[in-house]
Amino acid sequence: MKEDIFENGQKLPLIEEFYTVQGEGYHMGKPAYFIRIGGCDIGCNWCDTKISWVADKHKLAKVDRIADSAARAGSGVIVVTGGEPTSYNLWPLCNELSERGIDLHIETSGAYPLTGEWDWICLSPKRQQPPEKTIYMLANELKVIIFDDNDFAWAEECATKVNKNCKLYLQPEWSKREEFTPKIVEYIKKNTKWAISIQAHKFMKIP
Question: Is this prediction's pTM over 0.85?
Fold first, then answer.
């Protein structure tokens, strides 16, 4: 990048921030304040937030302002997502949120080195741009999106790299949920280390 418009993580391209309940994975159903950061070059063709791909389309926000808004919401948990949040230096954001006594969660493909200190790391790896090797052992949760049959083998490959306490989830891609939910159910009946994750927030029609 020609210039550090993000001021080494003091500013981030903020798409949206909202208080809702977590709709996926291990913490599904629990209240959480989401911070969605713009910018992603992974290029999943099924991405449901393509608005997040181009960082320049989103206004820069100071991380102390983001943290203040999160604290006022009253949630004890912040989920930083994207886009791909590891594209940025997240230490300043983590420091600001930690000072306010908030648990910090991140959802990432792991495509870039992780910065910041996190209470929960949800790794959702993508085949076209696999994660940095170091993040596998840090992940608390491995959530693999199932878009086609080849993703089952990808999930198993990733599962061999995470730590023994990592929670393992298979999640049908939303547009393929009718096709792949039954396949995932049958798969985890035979491969019991896995659990199914669904996008409950979409069924409930909430953010």
Answer: yes
Flag whether 2 is in a domain.
Answer: no
Q: Where are the beta strands (DSSP E) in the chain?
A: 11-21, 31-37, 60-62, 77-81, 103-108, 120-123, 141-146, 167-172, 195-196
**How far from chain centre, in Å, is Cα 28?**
13
**Is residue 1 domain-resident?**
no
Domain tally for the chain? 1
Dist. CA 67–CA 50, nearest whole Å: 25
CATH number at residue 179: 3.20.20.70
| Residue 23 near residue 199, CB atoms below 8 Å | yes
Q: Is the pLDDT of residue 1 over 80?
A: no
Per the domain annotation, does 195 fall within a domain?
Answer: yes
Residue 175 belongs to domain spanning: 7-204
Helices (H), the chain: 63-73, 91-99, 133-136, 150-159, 177-190, 200-204
* Mean pLDDT estimate for the chain: 95
132 by DSSP, 3-state: which?
coil
**Does a structural domain hold residue 134?**
yes
Distance CA 176, CA 51 (A): 21
- List, for residues 45-74, the tens digit of each pLDDT value: 788 788 888 888 899 999 999 999 999 999
The number of angstroms, rounded, from the C-alpha of 92 to the middle of its chain's C-alpha atoms is 19
